[in-house]
Amino acid sequence: MNPIAPSFPLQPRCPAEGFEADEGLEALLELAAETFEVPMAAITFLGPARARLLVERGCGVRELPRAATFCDRALATGSGLVIRDAAAEAAFRDHPAATGASALRFYAGLPFQIDGSDATPVLCVADRRSRDFPAPCLRRLGQLAVQASRHLALQRDLLLARRLAHTDEGTGLLNARGLCRALDARRASGRDLLVACLRLHRWNAVAEGTTAGDGVLAEAANRLTRIGPLSTGSARAGGPPPLLASLGRGTFAIGFEGGPELADAAALVSGEIAEVLRDDLVLRGQRFSLAAAVGLATTTGGGLGGGRSGPSGREILSRASLALTDARRNRGAGFVESRLFDAPMLAKARASATLESELRASIDSGRVQPAFQPIVDLTSSRVAGYEILARWEHPERGPIFPDVFIPLAEQTDLIEPLFACLARTAIHALPSLSADRHLPFLSLNLSKLQLHDGTLQDRIVGLCADAGVPTHRIHLELTESDVAESGEATATMHRLRAAGFELMLDDFGTGTSSLSSLHDYPVQWLKIDRGFTVQATRRRSVAIVADAVADLARKLNLRTVAEGLETAEEVPLFQAMGFDMGQGYRFGRPMPLPALRAWHASRADPLGGWLPAETPRHRAA
């Protein structure tokens, strides 16, 4: 074995990959050297052109050309090779391993298998002096090879488990745990870091087709690998390449090393991400945009402090994720929207976490209650149904408005418990709100997240069955923009409709595909956005559009609701247009169930003409 300097690069797919030197293997080689009284021992893996000594004793080399080692010959025999004196044997005296100042004269090598692996390493012992090696010695070498095989099989399983724990299965990139570990290793050297966390826009819609989703992820990962180390001025900074990780759900993270200029480099990183993702991906005839939101955080900014005492890898990734949330929440028109973490984001996140905990407790304790807002038949002036709206009366803060806690519930895992709490109470109360054998309908709002739940209809059917309420008296409201984003949402709508529920497209006219895909939605109702009702009496053009919506709905056999009616002038205008129902403060504010029952009791005909002045005001409305 010639002592060639270990500077040769490993070949791709080196058979030694997945194995590493450890104390157990080193002890085994020590035992082999002492048993046979030789100065050199090794376990060698042979690649197409290179030989790698996974672990060695006395050899002074870890890698050399395959042709320069006797292990190549040992592997060819299949049963092992013993060379007692290479200089005296014509077959070996000119071999590269037997020539030169460090020529070997004695060599004994035995190939062995590793259970579950295609690799066939060679356990060998060697000396620069000739030696005898009788058959019992070869048997003993075989016993040591069996021990090496078992050890390497166990080691491979452990290394594989460790790698899987730190690797994303779909892309082969680091996962969050692996990235944090790698960031910590780089932080240990005292280097400052910048982490960019990015999420592809509209990922849920892309991921509906698993094959398409995998293809988009693979291409995005491939493009992100083109991003090199941070630039300093016009030149690339030295140092290791960025760390790239896949965090799941269309989200990636990239970790960079740098110095005090990291905060200034954040804009550059955002620009490079935009550059590599800019071109659309065409996959199986479909075109996908790789537009993304990006959150960035550094160990030198946001009041975090740099150096070894700064934040851990997990902390810096968490801060980049907070910045990503802010970028997604405040998305503009840019191809890549980015935000750099700062201290106020952390304060906001802590406040949000506190509010989330309080919301969870309030849902569990029943402090979040449904409010019932009347929906009136514009022809008969009778109350036809109620929209159910969430109201949260905090014991210390007072009313928390829906535009605060509904998005919070959607960002966490609380939207389904919140919906179930409201729906259960409202549906069970519905029979008590009927009069003259007329059962009003309830209109419940669905979140876009629920539209990806294949069991949603079963749960609502169960609530109706428990309360003895026919499913056709439950209307489910979905916003046009949520439905337009996802084919899976349309499939959910069909399942809900098949279960007997009536579907209402809410805020109609504000989405992106109102007319082109309306015929694909199994809806029975259209509710126009409040913006139309407010403007219709002031702008003729808005009134014309609202009238056209009513006409379109009639031709499609759809019923209509005008939302947000507040003034005496608006009601007759929408009656004349032919809208079926009206909703708004003109008819009644959202009322908790006790107030609604009192309101009913105060009316001679609870289902008769609406009385605008009689609905009580509530702070949470």
TrEMBL record:
Domain of life, per lineage: Bacteria
Residue ranges constituting the EAL domain according to the UniProt record: 352-604
Any matching Pfam family: EAL
MF GO annotations: cyclic-guanylate-specific phosphodiesterase activity
InterPro entries to which the protein is assigned, alphabetical: Cyclic-di-GMP_PDE-like, EAL_dom, EAL_sf, GAF-like_dom_sf, GGDEF_dom, Nucleotide_cyclase, Rev_trsase/Diguanyl_cyclase
SUPFAM superfamilies associated with the record: EAL domain-like, GAF domain-like, Nucleotide cyclase
Protein name as annotated: EAL domain-containing protein
Lineage: Bacteria, Pseudomonadati, Planctomycetota, Phycisphaerae, Phycisphaerales
